């Protein structure tokens, strides 16, 4: 069964968003995947003439319409039919709503340079889409390629880790990806100083968890390499991805609600903000 059937690619007119869109189109070529290109223009209320910029509403929205024309041209270049969607309103709300409306199973978004943590700070479109959407989100950094040859799957000991691994199994089956699972043990130094046995207990718990995950993959006839690291999770994930030359990082966004979904400093945020390669956030 095909993992992804409908991709919603989000365009804001930036070259980074066009790069991510083109990668989505290339990925979809000859695969039967339907690609939707979405751009969202702001809603202007009241008398436009009072703004004092001397442009009509049609002129203000023209760049967004031009964005969709360029998206169509990219699709034609690769022989992929692109369905254009123009919306007005709050970008993250429209992206989430449209993904539900068209039954998208993957949202693709671009990202600026690898050090641009501001891309995923509280309040950004990317952050809010990840927080409120129930659809997988693929973040594609500038100049990165969408590839599935070697995948690094980041998990923790939680039900969300099981969900991520289920998606990883689907990825392995669909794309014959080499699978690597990493779990990072982080015990605060103050806790370790008071009760050092906590570290040993946690270490054994994670080892057992990784062994169980390995058995799940083996039952599906999928070989997997498990990696256990100690330290700051986001650093170890990024370092390992570079060390094994991974094409993709798969990570989960824990099921929080409301503003709790948008708290800064999470492992997921930092991995997205600093990764040189695409990051798939599993929902």
UniProtKB/TrEMBL annotation:
Show the Pfam families listed in the entry.
Usp
Q: Which domain of life is it from?
A: Bacteria
Boundaries of every UspA domain copy: 4-141, 149-283
SUPFAM superfamilies on file: Adenine nucleotide alpha hydrolases-like
Give the UniProt family note. Belongs to the universal stress protein A family.
Q: What is this protein called?
A: Universal stress protein, putative
């Amino acid at each position: 069964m095909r993992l992804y059937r409908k991709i919603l690619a989000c365009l804001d007119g930036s070259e980074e968003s066009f790069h991510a869109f083109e990668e989505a189109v290339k990925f979809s070529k000859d695969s039967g995947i339907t690609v939707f290109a979405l751009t969202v223009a702001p809603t202007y209320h009241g008398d436009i003439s009072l703004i004092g910029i001397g442009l009509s509403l049609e002129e203000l929205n023209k760049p967004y319409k031009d964005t969709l024309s360029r998206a169509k041209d990219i699709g034609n270049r690769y022989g992929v039919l692109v369905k254009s969607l123009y919306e007005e309103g709050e970008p993250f709300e429209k992206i989430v709503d449209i993904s539900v409306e068209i039954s998208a199973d993957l949202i693709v978004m671009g990202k600026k340079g690898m050090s641009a943590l501001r891309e995923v700070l509280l309040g950004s479109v990317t952050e809010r889409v990840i927080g409120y959407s129930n659809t997988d989100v693929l973040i594609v950094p500038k100049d990165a390629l969408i590839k599935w040859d070697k995948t690094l799957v980041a998990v923790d000991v939680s039900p969300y880790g099981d969900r991520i691994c289920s998606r990883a199994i689907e990825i392995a089956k669909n794309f014959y990806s080499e699978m690597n699972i990493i779990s990072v043990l982080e015990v605060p130094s103050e806790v370790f100083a008071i009760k050092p046995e906590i570290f040993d207990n946690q270490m054994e718990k994670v080892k057992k968890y990784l062994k169980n995950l390995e058995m799940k993959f083996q039952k599906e006839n999928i070989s997997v390499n498990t990696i256990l690291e100690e330290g700051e999770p986001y650093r170890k994930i990024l370092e390992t991805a570079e060390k094994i030359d991974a094409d993709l990082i798969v990570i989960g966004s824990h099921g929080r609600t409301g503003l709790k979904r948008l708290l800064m400093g999470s492992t997921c945020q930092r991995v997205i903000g600093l990764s040189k390669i695409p990051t798939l956030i599993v929902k």
